[in-house]
Amino acid sequence: MKILIDTNILISVALFPNPRIMRFWSLATDENNLFLCSYTLEEVNRLLARKFPANKQDMAVFLQKLQYTLVHTQDINIPNAAVIRDPKDYPILTSAIYADVDILITGDKDFKPVNIKRPEILTIREFMEKYDSGR
Q1: By CB neighbour count within 10 A (0-12 exposed, 13-18 middle, 19+ buried), where does 72 fall?
Q2: Which of 88, 119, 89, 101 lies closest to 33 in space, CA to CA?
């Protein structure tokens, strides 16, 4: 499967790993193709500068070791059903649609009301419930 990871998930995995997050990460990355969008990487840098400046190097090392496909975020028309409360979330959704990923994983509740068939939008918990048969 092709999976695009949102900013909050990437930061959780890289900076705040715990057994649940690492189990998710293993499931999401072992046999799937990971995608990150340029907007997410820019957002990560802004967040690190503002909230976690001491972790900037840790994130750089994490991203350097990570195998992923980079999607250059661009403006595209999205379906009318894809209305998001926070306009800052549109670049993530448009990147997922443009890259034709199967799943967008996010912890952002503003994605919940989005009603589109592809990509499937899941939280970590929903992903684990659906794909972790070894629980």
Answers
A1: exposed
A2: 101
- C-alpha 23/C-alpha 26 separation (Å) is 5
Contact 119, 104 (CB under 8 A): yes
Average pLDDT over residues 50-72: 95
Residue 112 CA: distances (Å) to CA of 55, 70, 121: 30, 24, 8
Indicate if the pLDDT at residue 105 is higher than 80.
Answer: yes
Which domain CATH number covers 82?
A: 3.40.50.1010
pLDDT per position as a tens digit, 23-53: 999 999 998 999 999 999 999 999 999 999 9
* Tally of domains within the chain: 1
Contact call for residues 89 and 111 (beta carbons, < 8 A): yes
Domain holding 88, by residue range, is 2-131
Tokens encoding 35:
């995608």
Q: Is the pTM of this model over 0.85?
A: yes
Q: What are phi and psi of 120, to 5 degrees?
A: -75, 130
